[in-house]
Amino acid sequence: MYNHIKEIVAAAENTHKPISELIIEQECQLSGLPREKVWQRMKYNLQTMRAAVKKGESGNGVFSKTGLTGGEAIKLKKYREKGHTLSGDTMMAAVENAIATNEVNAAMGVVCATPTAGSSGTLPGVLFLLEKRLQLSEEQMIRFLFTAGGFGMVIANNAEIAGATGGCQAEVGSASAMGAAAAVEVAGGSAEQSAQALSIAMSNLLGLVCDPIAGLVEVPCVKRNGIGAGNALIAADMALAGCISVIPADECIEAMKKVGHQMPASLRETGIGGLAGTPTGQAIKAKILVKMRR
After folding, report:
1. Number of domains in the chain
2. Any idea of the CA torsion for 77, 78, 81, 87, to the nearest 10 degrees?
3. Helix and strand tally (H, E) in the chain?
4. C-alpha 19, offset from chain centre
5. Residue 291 has what pLDDT?
6. For 198-225, what is each residue's pLDDT tens digit?
7. Degrees, nearest 5: CA angle 37-43-46
8. Nearest Cα to 72, choosing from 274, 228, 284, 226?
9. What distance in Å separates the CA atoms of residue 209 and residue 91, rounded to the nearest whole number?
10. In degrees rounded to 5, what are phi and psi of residue 66?
11. 135 conformational bin, left if phi > 0, alpha if psi -120 to 50, beta if neither
12. Of the candidates 76, 111, 126, 199, which lies 20 to 30 Å from 100 by C-alpha distance?
């Protein structure tokens, strides 16, 4: 079992296999399942992600029961159609996919936790954008998910992926790092470049707090997934260009763990500090609580 990013990179370089293949082999070994079964399970995850994106981008969109979030993926879709985006259609398409997924999650729909439900939009945001931009096949998309999952497993085992223990850096930050690493592989980059992309993406979101208004996975969670997707693409491009992270991937993961432990409880999913603690955030919380009592 791969315990560190450097082990995955070394194995990929020594065997001349892509990271995705190494993770598939590891999953078969750990689960005892045949390769076809392991592949089909990941294919199901891909299908679940696609369905969530489609649902969030169809009709008038989806809306949460609280009314805090919903319909903004459709706004982004219409905005993109005008052809005047400031950051480019590629970037905004990824953001749209991410927002759509998390709006479905907030509306109690079915999503694929990658690595958590609160960060479920980041990977689809990246993946379905790359499907169109790079003309990815279904096999390549499934391999993307295996690569992301392999790196995510190392993060989870060495740090954390829950906002309650590590802040949003552990959720959207981890998802963004996973997406960046996987994007590099499907774009033809090396294992080392995937590790560099992970490091850059994670470093960019280091210290991101988890401060959901009213303790709900809606605000600012939904939009942060859009930022996570954009960050992943930027980090992947930087790595593919040859840029490096001064701090190695495994040390970035360890740093994230330490930062998470240093965060006060008010900034770790309790809905007390940060945006949740603002006058508006508290007023929304009070309004929702009154509504729930009726």
Report:
1. 1
2. -60
3. 13, 0
4. 18
5. 75
6. 999 999 999 999 999 999 999 999 999 9
7. 155
8. 226
9. 24
10. -80, -20
11. left
12. 199
The DSSP output letter for 63 is B
227/215 Cα distance (integer angstroms): 20
- Res 290: pLDDT: 81
Amino acid sitting at position 94: A
State both tokens at 251.
Answer: 């040390």
Neighbour tally for 85: CB within 10 Å: 16
* Calpha distance 183→75 (Å, rounded): 26
d(CA 210, CA 224): 10
Q: Largest alpha-carbon pair distance within the chain?
A: 63
- For the domain that residue 237 is a member of, what is the CATH number? 1.10.4100
For the chain, residues with pLDDT lower than 50 are: none
Q: Which domain holds residue 69?
A: 5-293
What is the model's pLDDT at position 241? 98
